[in-house]
Amino acid sequence: MSMLEIRALRKTFSSKKRKVVAVDDVSFAVSTGEMVGLLGPNGAGKTTIIKSVLGIVQPDSGEISVNGYCPNRQLKQLLSRTAAVLEGSRNIYWRLSVWENICFFAGIHGVSVAMGKDYFEQLLTTFNLKEKRDSEVRLLSQGMKQKVAICCALAKQTPLVFLDEPTLGLDVETSYELRDVLKVLVQNEQRTVVVSSHDMDVIQDICQRAIIVSNGRVIADEKITNLLALFASRTFRLVIADAHHPELLEVLTQKLPHMSYSTNDRQLILTANLPQANDLYSLIDLLREHGAELETINQEAPDLEKVFVSLMRKERERCNGT
User: Fold this and answer.
1) Which of 4, 8, 296, 304 would bridge with 30, disulfide CB 3.0–4.6 Å?
2) Cβ-proximal residues to 208 (8 Å cutoff; 6+ apart), any chain
3) Other beta carbons less than 10 A from residue 137's beta carbon
4) Using CA atoms, how far apart are residues 172 and 6, in angstroms rounded to an integer?
């Protein structure tokens, strides 16, 4: 069963000068108990999609359903099943203590202290906030404020949670702690989590699937393992003896437009994306023709960041008609 369904969603913003299409015919579904990454460059439409689900933004057209409820007709029921931490927003009250914030935001969703006390205490322990329990949030570091905001969202115990840039302001250790918490949360509580982030390592680590948005459109919706497999065996790193090969680089730049290179005191390092198997043999032939001595060649394992960059490049080329 899908916890979240979005069909043909469209939203435009107009000013005196121009009209901007923020979301353009977006459709996807997220199953119960699934953790999905929502990715895209700044201005891609990610936050508009999330705010449309939460009823903060009124879309021009399309359908949204959260556990069977839609924001147009059943917003109260929808919001009772949804929690969110929005990047760039004041998600908590800074003059309340950590504990007061958790109790307040849980209470708004009908989770009283008596009902949720044990779970609230568990969140404080999990996020290493017990010592700051009675501290005013305004006195905490940015990373701790972010952790409190996430605790407040989780304390509502809703089946659907949106986390917009959840690792923003967190140090490396705390970021890994959060990843572990989210994995356990989904596994043990069957919560559905949509994570929007620029941190590709986080998405690759905790999400089973990625929805990639560009210019308001979904350009990829696939399991992360499948995305990585799609780009496997295509990128190679070649180390060539002698850094000085101007004629070779001129030829390679013409034939391999997505190739990059660097040099050190005695070597030329090429990084080339080779879509076809025979491309590697052609490249080696070119090296041989120009008298370049190949020292090492390694296949680079793809990661989500490389996949994302490649998809963004293809989307730009499509939009530019090249």
Assistant:
1) 4
2) 34, 35, 36, 223, 224
3) 20
4) 34
Return d(Cα 155, Cα 18) in angstroms, integer. Answer: 42
What is the tens place of the pLDDT at every residue in 279-320?
A: 888 889 989 999 899 999 988 777 888 888 888 888 888 887
Question: Which neighbouring-strand residues pair with 83?
Answer: 161
State in Å, rounded, how far the first CA of the chain is from the last one: 41
pLDDT tens string 95-130: 999 999 999 999 999 999 999 999 999 999 988 899
Note the pTM of the prediction, 2 decimals: 0.78
Question: Residue ranges of the alpha helices (H) in the chain?
Answer: 46-53, 75-79, 98-108, 113-126, 142-155, 172-189, 200-206, 224-230, 246-255, 277-289, 304-320
Distance CA 104, CA 111 (A): 9
CA 321 to chain centre: 27
Domains of the chain: 2-228 (3.40.50.300), 233-300 (3.30.70.870)
